[in-house]
Structure prediction request, 260 residues.
Amino acid sequence: MPDMQDSNCPGVPIEAGLRGELNRIQERNTELERSNRDLEQFALMASHDLQEPLRGITLYAQLLAEKYAGNDEDTTAFLNYIVNGALRMRDLLASLLSYSELSRTERPPATAVDMNTVLQMVLSDLKIAISDSSAVISYDTLPVVSACTGDFLRVFQNLLMNAIKYRSERPLRVHISSQSAGRDARISVADNGAGIEPSQHREIFTAFTRLHGPKIPGCGLGLTICERLVKRNGGRIWVESTPGKGSTFWFTVPVDSQRS
Ligand code: ADP
Prediction:
């Protein structure tokens, strides 16, 4: 029987053609992994090394702003632009640094974590932002999960801060609850804020995606970091949302086996 021929490479037997294609894909994957590592290394170095000169710029601009405050309107306004720009850049670098550190560091071992305690810690940290926005936060009893406490402190912190930042004109209400989903708990943070177009539901988890203008502080890394944190604890995260009505962010996390 004649050898089957590869239609992409006439004259080459199909098995040899497939083997060649497999090798090419493997080479491309290795190359992609290397360039991803290089990019992460670059992001880490840039975010780390830029912090020191930026601290100097912020400090001296603040000193000048204090010295010339009220002297002349233009000088005060220009110096405020510099200080505000530098402070935004500081926040961006801090987020970039924690994002790139996440991909380099091992996850701390999972322990039994009472999510009610984690939530109370975050609510206490965000006391000022909650009272400034007059947000009403309610919650059900949450489960004890098997996870890293620090990771979920950050997840709740990001999700609650976002609910506050992207609220609508309506008085803000946020509800946190949990459902059982086999070996996992499915935890939700639901707000009645601005909401998100369905076409953006996946997009917002991609680094640097921002749907709102520069007046609201942020750099588009919060949800990307949340996704990494949830994934490294064995879960997944997604959003359900109707524009103008609000958003519900869901994430899953393994329940502590002693309690399930
Ligand atoms: P950041 O808040 O720093 O911009 P995130 O990654 O946390 O970055 O969020 C990405 C974008 O998703 C935000 O800029 C905002 O446009 C949108 N978003 C996030 N959370 C909400 C929410 N609860 N309601 C409406 N839009 C949201």
Summary: The mean pLDDT is 90. Residues 158, 162-163, 165-166, 191, 193-194, 196, 204, 209-212, 218-224, 247 surround adenosine-5'-diphosphate (CB under 6 Å). The two ends are 60 Å apart (CA to CA).
